[in-house]
Specification:
5% strand, single chain, mainly alpha, 48% helix, elongated, two-stranded antiparallel sheet
Length: 196
């Protein structure tokens, strides 16, 4: 009985590689390591976080506008808005100014006092009715209005005015639900955004 003959080694075969990492070839560059942390795709973010991000965008747009107003005009956003209303409606009273800006009358009175102190407006009794005080813009106020960036009422009222009725009604209802959840003080609705 013959035993199996051993095969002679193949001279062309490569030697078996020892286990372990492959040796680097000369001139070969190591591949960059893959990033292990990655921001989740927008769809993976929960709805509350997405809405929060949208509020941040709105607040930052409003804040940036009022900062630009103060930098260029030298007055606060609420003062500039009041000044522009007086310029558009010469002879307007403080009560009508409050209604035009949809703010508390005490807030309007404080804005008027600040503008009077800066000599941007005048307050004088009406010739027709001495009980009525009329507001008018002075040259200093006109100069401020000329150099101030618009819109004078702010970017948010301007953006809301461009929305259609159905969108505004939907926003009103949804924000009403949010305000209830916050248990917010409704009196704050009469304070201009620029003063918050």
């Amino acid at each position: 009985m013959g035993s199996a003959l051993a095969k002679p080694p193949d001279p062309t075969a490569r030697p078996a590689r020892a286990p372990g990492p492959a040796p680097r070839r000369a001139g070969a560059q190591r591949a960059a390591p893959r990033a292990t942390t990655q921001a989740p795709p927008p769809a993976a973010v929960d709805p509350a976080t997405r809405v929060l991000r949208r509020f941040r965008l709105v607040f930052n747009a409003v804040k940036s506008h009022f900062q630009q107003v103060e930098k260029q005009a030298g007055v606060g956003g609420a003062q500039l808005w009041a000044l522009s209303v007086v310029a558009q409606q010469p002879g307007i009273g403080v009560g009508d100014l409050a209604r035009a800006m949809d703010i508390h009358q005490t807030t309007a009175s404080n804005l008027v006092k600040a503008l009077l102190a800066q000599q941007m407006i005048t307050l004088a009794r009406s010739a027709a009715d001495r009980r009525v005080a009329e507001l008018r813009v002075l040259p200093a106020g006109q100069r401020v209005l000329k150099k101030a960036p618009g819109p004078f009422a702010g970017v948010l009222p301007q953006a809301l005015a461009r929305l259609d009725e159905a969108t505004l009604q939907r926003l009103d209802a949804d924000l009403g639900t949010l305000i209830s959840a916050l248990d917010a003080d409704e009196r704050a609705a009469g304070i201009p955004l620029a003063q918050m």
